[in-house]
Amino acid sequence: MGIQSKYKSKPLDCWQKGKELRLNYYKSLITAREEGRLLVSGSGASCLALPAGLGDFVYFSGEPYGASIGYDPAFSLEAMEAAEARGYARDMCGYMRNYWGSMFLDRYYFGGPFPKPDFFLTRHLCDAGHGKWYQVCKEYYDVPLFVYEQPVTPPGVRFEDVIEYLASQLYDSIEWMEKITGRKYDDEKLIEASRNFFKSEALWGEICLLNQAIPAPLDLKSELALMPIAIGIRHQPEAVAFYEALRDEVKDRIANQIAAVGDERCRLMTDLTPPWNFLKMFRYFEKYGVVFVGIWVYCINSGQIEIREDGVVLPAKTPEERNMPLNNRADALRAIALWHLESPLSQAFSSPKRKAFDIIALAKYWRCEGVVMHYNRGCPLCTLGSPEAKLELQKAGFPVAIYEGNFADFRELDESQVLDRLETFIQSLGLSKLED
Amino acid sequence: MDRFREIFDKRHDYAREWKARTGGRVLGYFCTYLPEELAYAAGALPVRIFGSHQPQDVTDRHIYSMYCPYCRDCLAQGLLGKYDYLDGIAKARSCIHMRNAFASWELNIPLSYSHFISTPSNIQSSRAKPFLIKELDRFKKSLEEWTAKEISQEDMERAIDIYNTNRCLTKQLYMLRQRTIPPILGAEAMDIVLSSQVMDKAEHNVLLQEIWQNIDQRQNERDPGIRLMLIGSEDDDTEFVRMVESLGATIVVDEHCTGTRYFWNEVISEEDKLAAIAQRYIERPPCPAKDFPERRRWPYIFKLIDDYHVQGVILIQQKFCDPHEFDIPPLIALLKERNIPSLFLEFDITTPIGQFRTRVEAFLEMLAMEVI
Ligand code: SF4
Ligand code: SF4
Fold first, then answer.
1. Residue A37: left if φ>0, alpha if ψ -120 to 50, beta else—which one?
2. Is residue A377 part of a domain?
3. Residue A436 falls within a domain, yes or no?
4. Is the link from the previous residue into A215 a cis peptide, with omega within 30 of 0?
5. In testing the pocket of ligand 1, which one of A96, A98, A136 has its CB within 8 Å of the most ligand atoms?
6. Is position A133 within any domain?
7. What is the helix (H) or strand (E) element at residue B39, kind and residue range?
8. CA A309 to CA A357: how far, in whole Å?
9. Helix (H, G, I), strand (E, B) or coil at B104
10. Sequence-ordered list of residues with C-beta below 8 angstroms from that of B272, at least 6 positions apart, any chain
11. Are A240 and A76 in contact (CB under 8 A)?
């Protein structure tokens, strides 16, 4: 008989429902056309509520699709090679190359031909992706593209004209969509979808923060599996209902001390998405009683939290919870603009100093003993300021380990070297392998 | 012509001397989207921060190694104290690589002033200009606060005038290169533009005027050979250009940010000076990072190819430079479609001149056969 674990542990009850939602989402991209729904593609960082005023639609988010392909080295290799055969460099965004490759091959990872969008609509936050990513797609399919850009403004500073710039581009996007589809835009639908969008993002952020509890109710693998729902359908009531159920279940786990890792002895966090084809590394470190309680970029990308100037971390309040009514188009678009601008993700990309500050705040909030940083060769934007953040974390007293890899291109990952490196780090924290 | 090169090579001495002579402040900037006119109107000397092309080991702690060598080389100069005469730094939004260099400079090298301008990337949106005007206004106010001096309408008019003169004179010199025997070589043109990015424009204008007055006396007996164009990432590697021109070719025009992208269009006068400046930066030949959803670069590039009777293109890309990594594949395809041969070269902090020589020689041989 094995030694009894410190805490009870069991799989999430919501797991099956989450899996179903995820698969249904990817299937809906295949059937969208025959069901008469519009198919819109762009960055998962966009406001998915925007096309809602046109009627029924499916949003094909580029990044989670690139991540899904990243799970499967064989498919990913074919996709990457298809992009490289067209001259695109190996150091460009890994998700983008998976997406492009699948498009060039005309093979959808979940079966059948690549779902050709009716149009592309994207937020532009990343100067190494977003607008330029979908420009290539626009030209490949000869379908229209609209880009709305988020300015890079200093964290915490909200100039009225910055909000206005973003909101006015959103206005233009609506006129543009009406023009290219010939459909009348219904503001009520926009408002409803925006409400869901804000709620889902706030819920996802709140769920990530609940991992402050000891023992941590969620492990990183669950977070990684559940987040694509947020990226794909977070403007829909199903996403809100799912995240409400998940939040309640997580609270219940906390109340009953149900742990993600039964032998939790050490809590670590990471900054960026790990290589998708190498998630087993997290299981590996469970043998040391290590639980990875969160990913900085995950709770703020398609999730919203608030990190105050004094370092206090809080769940985000939706616009309506902050007494900002959503009565008409103007209200909704202004709320979306503000929501984008207030996202800690945007602020971190404006200022590496702020990024370091936020990672430290989260490391403290999650009660971490150390931070593992991924120098992700597949995402130039996410690594902006990473070395500076590392220095700041060390100054704040956190032991930091670094590994190099690529979240989407397995060719750039030396698995044994990463394991060796992280194992040394974990041992340096005074941990040894638990007995089986 | 040698004067331009000399000043660029001794740019730090020039800036120090300028400072001692005028008592003014020197503002380092990182990207040509910075509206230099405003800094100049504030009485400062805007100097573009360049690298040194020397191997270095001081940036790994601050910038991830897969960021472009150029941004790392620029930061290295700051960390090594080569720019210790700067009073402030400024940056306009362009690529994330330079954003990191700027942020790391701000974090690690104490200065009394730094400012970031969120120059729109979505410049094709009609909303971009009004927003840029506001950003320029914030830049202007921050400069006023820094220098404790108001920037008047006349200050801006004067600065715009001096900058426009510089652009106009440089463009006129460039246009002479359309001739069958260009009186100015590619390396010389690059020296002109590079020096303009580190000099007081009024002083640079004097040098340009001297060249202009004597241009017809320039006896260039040299056979231009193959007419080439340089396109791509930032490139201040004059050694490379001299090497190419030593092989029986002439670089007759370029499209990069130490060339035409920097000076090609002027500020068109209007009462609201900030609006006039904003218009200029919205309409300038775009960096690929700002060229979407439509392609405005292509018509501009192909017009230059036609006007300058270009026979072949050398595409230069700094390693890891994603803005250009997006544009180079479709550009190569377009050039091919239009029967314009091209050679792609990837640059690092130090350029392997020997290895590049072999490739350029082979390219020129191939072109020579086509021309025959
Ligand atoms: S580089 Fe990173 S942030 Fe940019 S589009 Fe790709 S995944 Fe997104
Ligand atoms: S060379 Fe490219 S990546 Fe580097 S600073 Fe210039 S545009 Fe940015």
1. beta
2. yes
3. no
4. yes
5. A96
6. yes
7. helix B36-41
8. 9
9. helix
10. B133
11. no
Confidence label for A436 from pLDDT (cuts 50, 70 and 90): low
| Ligand 1 atom 7 nearest Cα | A379
Q: Tell me how far apart the alpha carbons of residues A322 and A184 are, in angstroms, rounded to a whole number.
A: 31
* Residue A414 predicted with pLDDT over 80: yes
Residue A160, Cβ neighbours under 10 Å: how many? Answer: 8
Among the listed residues A134, A69, A64, A133, the one whose alpha carbon sits nearest the alpha carbon of residue A105: A69
Considering only CB atoms, A86 lies closest to which of B99, B100, B329, namely B329
Residue B99 Cα, ligand 2 centroid: separation in angstroms?
Answer: 10
Q: Does the beta-carbon distance from B134 to A161 stay under 8 Å?
A: yes
- For β-strands B113-117 and B88-92, DSSP reports them as parallel
Token digits for A205? 């952020």
Ramachandran sector of residue A238 (left: φ over 0; alpha: ψ -120 to 50; beta: rest):
alpha
Q: Using CA atoms, how far apart are residues B255 and B228, in angstroms rounded to an integer?
A: 11
Residues of B in contact with A127 (CB under 8 A): 93-96, 99, 121, 289, 322-323
Find the mean pLDDT for residues A128-155. Answer: 95
SS3 A185: coil
Residue B293 preceded by cis peptide, ω within 30: yes
How many domains, in total, are found in chain A?
1
Q: Is residue A326 part of a domain?
A: yes
Q: Give Cβ neighbours of residue A363 (< 8 Å, ≥ 6 apart).
A: A269, A371, A393, A396, A398
ipTM confidence = 0.95
Q: Does ligand 1 have an atom closer than 6 angstroms to the CB of A93?
A: yes
CB A236 within 8 A of CB A343: no
Q: Is the CB of B71 under 6 A from ligand 2?
A: yes
Q: Could you tell me which of B339, B53, B337, B11 has the C-alpha nearest to residue B199? A: B11
Structure tokens that stand for A237 in this block: 């009531």
* Interatomic CA distance for residues B245 and A404, integer angstroms: 41
The rounded distance, in Å, linking the Cα atoms of B292 and A220 is 37
Is domain B7-149 in CATH 3.40.50.11890, yes or no?
yes
Ligand 1 touching residue A341 (CB < 6 A): no
Q: Which residues contact B352 (CB under 8 A, 6 or more apart)?
A: none
Q: ∠ at Cα A32 (A30, A35), nearest 5°? A: 125
Tokens at B123, concatenated: 């410049």
Show which of residues 97-116 on chain B sit within 8 Å of chain A, judged by CB atoms.
Answer: 97, 99-100, 103-104, 106-107, 116
Is the CB of residue B297 below 6 angstroms from any atom belonging to ligand 2?
no
Assess whether the C-beta atom of B258 lies below 6 angstroms from ligand 2: no
Burial class (CB in 10 A: 0-12, 13-18, 19+), B310: buried
What is the pLDDT tens value at each position of chain B, 372 positions in all?
A: 899 999 999 999 999 999 999 999 999 999 999 999 999 999 999 999 999 999 999 999 999 999 999 999 999 999 999 999 999 999 999 999 999 999 999 999 999 999 999 999 999 999 999 999 999 999 999 999 999 999 999 999 999 999 999 999 999 999 999 999 999 999 999 999 999 999 999 999 999 999 998 887 776 678 999 999 999 998 899 999 999 999 999 999 999 999 999 999 999 999 999 999 999 999 999 999 999 999 999 999 999 999 999 999 999 999 999 999 999 999 999 999 999 999 999 999 887 888 899 999 999 999 988 766
How do strand B26-29 and strand B45-48 relate by DSSP bridges? Answer: parallel
Phi, psi of A266 (to 5 degrees): -145, 135
Average predicted confidence (pLDDT) for chain A? 93
* Joined tokens for residue B195: 């020096």
B3 Cβ partners below 8 Å, 6+ apart? B207
Tokens at B329, concatenated: 């594949």
B298 touches A: beta carbon within 8 Å:
no
Q: Which residues contact A352 (CB under 8 A, 6 or more apart)?
A: A384, A385, A388, A389, B100, B103, B104, B107
Closest partner residue to B120 among A149, A349, A383, by Cβ?
Answer: A149
